[in-house]
Amino acid sequence: MEGMEPGTVRPGGRTARVRAAVLRAAGDALVEHGFDRLDLADVARRAEVGKTTVYRRWSTTTGLVADLLDDMAEQSSPRTDTGSLDGDLRANARLVVGTLTDPRQGALFKAVIAAATCDDRAAGALRRFYATRIEEWAPCVTRAAERGEVPSGTDAREVIRAVSAPLYYRFLVSGDPLDEPSADRAALAAGAAARAGAYGS
């Protein structure tokens, strides 16, 4: 389609099957070798797709990584609704920990974050991924405000960011354990701060 970047078309049929095979192969290659050694020809071989198809659609490894992350955002798990802010934030935090500690998804995130540090298109895809996740979970804070659990005007997006921020710090910087206790602690801290009015808009 004219004006669209390679790899951004979402058609059906054979084209969708080719895209799915290439993205799966790209994920496999990233897990095995990381972003620095990602190669479009290797991805085409793994996907059993012609090299010209891959080069024509995605053109660069960062374009392929960006499309892979867009696909991950499309496939993200739906928000949990437990009926309480603490329960919802805990579910969100445990989902983040589960994703980051998954052998495949954790490796993919590290590779994508590495790509985003040096490529604007990958960085844009990373921002879109997190925007999608935040928009998915923000309503749990809005509903908590409606129930009187947090002050009216609480910035729902900031609360969701506050849940995941310490978990990503552990994942990318400190190397401290990522487990259910750390997830629950992050959720509890964000919920307490929200109730205290720290995220007033």
Automatic annotation (TrEMBL):
Binding region for DNA: 39-58
Keywords for this protein: DNA-binding, Transcription, Transcription regulation
Keyword Amino-acid biosynthesis attached: no
Highest taxon above the source species: Bacteria
Domain HTH tetR-type, first and last residues per copy: 16-76
InterPro entries named in the record: Homeodomain-like_sf (IPR009057), HTH-type_TetR-like_transc_reg (IPR050109), HTH_TetR (IPR001647), Tet_transcr_reg_TetR-rel_C_sf (IPR036271), TetR_C (IPR011075)
Transcription regulation among keywords: yes
Name of the featured protein: Transcriptional regulator
